[in-house]
Write a structure and sequence with these properties.
The chain is α/β, with parallel strands linked by helices. It has 21 helices and 16 strands. The N and C termini lie far apart (105 Å). InterPro entries: CHP02679, CHP02679_N, DUF2399.
Length: 432
């Protein structure tokens, strides 16, 4: 074809066997000069949006603060000055009439815009295709839950509902790729034995930095890893390090530590136990050389003051004691899981306050333990023996090991730290 007109030959069958007349020819050269002017791009865009929404092409459309070029383009299109106000208003009916009368587009404005810019898919169809593409993007996660990680079903459902993947990936194609990587990583977790996070990323994705902080892939994999391990909500670099470590991925195997006293099973631990000295074990030590022996019972406390006082008072006679130093670290969890797996019974004590209950609950979600003077009855006895206890504050928490304990804290309203019951704890450790 040359010149200007584009004609479609033949006839098309319409509904119910009727024959539909072919579209009237559009003079493309004149159409490009008339409606294809850059000064009318805003007008063409408005028309396409109306067509996509399947709205009528009638009535005015308005452009605020038009340029001189946009005013001139409208003047050429309509054959008259469009006015001099701060806004430029064009009636679509008038444009349609110009295109039909001039023969540029005998079928009017919709046909002209389609010829000029291509077909306009209905917005409802576009949205349906996009939603279908988003549903398909989650296929790697669905496959992971169905075939390898059914325990992640609830997490995968929340991921669909909260919009995190859409915010991270923006498009269905990017989401599919992101979830492919997420599913591949989660199928290999928790890592046992533990490995460094960069080494795991390199082996899984061919890129040691694929799971660096802040990347969309790291965000999703860490979220899924926490669902696998039950690691609690939190934030900050230390929290992320511990969350990764709970899944067997070590960002820093040296800074995560746990304090012990009287524990044996390696040459260093044996020496410390013989000397009655506390030992600080790193996550690196515990993953490479865990204790070779497991005692029948290990007592676990929350605060270093308990362990330090036991070392001063009992020395080498102190039975195995482990200190969390607050929230259970990756090193502490690694040690306690190892001991539990080898038959050790863990006996836990912590502060009698809401924070203490949360720490105890976080530990219980990861490794079983039995209370060590850490029940409602023990709390009531401690309050009775401590008339100057500070008032309890903060948000209440639960205690699965003793449902009566939170009610007792609420009733008595006193905060009892471990240091206030040291004599009782040391008496237990000393066998009295």
């Amino acid at each position: 074809m040359s010149g200007g007109d584009t004609r479609e030959g033949g006839h098309e069958s319409g509904p119910a066997g009727t024959r539909r007349q072919p579209a009237a020819p559009v003079d493309r050269d004149r159409l490009t000069r008339l409606l294809g002017d850059p000064g009318l791009a805003w007008l063409v865009d408005r028309v396409r949006r109306r067509m996509a929404r399947e709205e009528s092409l009638t009535g005015p459309v308005t452009l605020r603060e038009p340029t001189a070029g946009q005013r001139a383009a409208v003047e050429r299109l309509l054959g008259r000055a469009p006015g001099a106000g701060r806004a430029l208003s064009v009636r679509l009916d008038a444009v349609d009439a110009v295109l039909r009368r001039s023969g540029v587009s005998p079928d009017g404005l919709a046909a002209a815009v389609t010829a000029l810019t291509g077909p306009v898919p209905p917005l409802a169809d576009v949205r349906e295709r996009e939603e279908r593409a988003w549903r398909d993007a989650y296929a790697p996660l669905d496959e992971l839950v169905r075939t390898r990680r059914p325990e992640l079903a609830d997490w995968a459902g929340r991921l669909r509902a909260d919009g995190l993947v859409r915010r991270l990936a923006r498009t269905p194609g990017s989401a599919r790729s992101l979830l492919d990587g997420t599913a591949e990583a989660l199928s290999r977790l928790p890592a046992d034995p533990a490995v460094s996070l960069p080494a795991f990323a390199a082996g899984t994705f061919g890129n040691a930095h694929a799971l660096d902080d802040g990347t969309p892939l790291a965000t999703l994999v860490l979220s899924g890893a926490r669902a696998l391990t039950g690691f609690p909500d939190g934030g900050g670099a230390e929290w992320r390090r511990e969350a990764w470590a709970a899944a067997g991925l070590l960002k820093d195997a040296l800074s995560s530590t746990v304090l012990t006293l009287g524990l044996r099973g390696t040459p260093a631990l044996d020496w410390s136990a013989d000397e009655g000295e506390p030992a600080a074990l790193t996550l690196r030590q515990l993953t490479r050389h865990p204790p070779r022996t497991a005692p029948a019972v290990v007592h676990v406390c929350e605060n270093p003051a308990v362990l330090a006082t036991a070392a001063d008072t009992l020395g080498a006679a102190c039975p195995p004691l482990v200190c969390l130093q607050g929230q259970p670290s990756a090193a502490a969890l690694t040690l306690l899981r190892h001991l539990h797996a080898h038959g050790t019974t863990l006996r836990y004590h912590g502060d009698f306050d809401w924070g203490g209950l949360r720490i105890a609950s976080a530990l219980l979600r990861r490794v079983p333990w039995r209370p060590w003077r850490y029940t409602a009855a023990d709390y009531r006895a401690a309050v009775a023996a401590t008339p100057l206890a500070s008032p309890l504050a903060g948000t209440p928490a639960t205690a699965v090991w003793d449902p009566d304990l939170p009610a007792a804290l609420t009733e008595l309203g006193a905060r009892i730290e471990e240091e206030m019951v040291l004599d009782d704890l040391l008496a237990d450790l000393g066998g009295r």
